[in-house]
Amino acid sequence: MNIGQKGIELIKHFEGCELEAYKCPAG
Predict the structure, then answer these.
(1) pTM listed for this prediction
(2) What is the DSSP code string of 1-27?
(3) ∠ CA(3), CA(11), CA(7), 5° rounding?
(4) Where does residue 7 rank: exposed (0-12), middle (13-18), buried (19+ CB within 10 A)?
(5) Spatial distance between the Cα atoms of 11 and 18, rounded to a whole number of angstroms
């Protein structure tokens, strides 16, 4: 499975959004 640079950036972006979503309510 070969993901392009754009795919990696998208995954990192969505992972960051999920992390922020978890941090905000817990904060």
Answers:
(1) 0.43
(2) ----HHHHHHHHHHHHHHHHHHHHHH-
(3) 30
(4) exposed
(5) 11
Domain that residue 22 falls in = 1-26
- What average pLDDT score do residues 1-26 get? 75
Number of domains making up the chain:
1
Q: What are phi and psi of 26, to 5 degrees?
A: -75, -30
Mean residue pLDDT across the chain? 74
| Of residues 7 and 18, more confidently modeled | 7
What pLDDT, on a 0 to 100 scale, did the predictor assign at position 18?
Answer: 72
CB distance 3 to 11 below 8 Å: yes
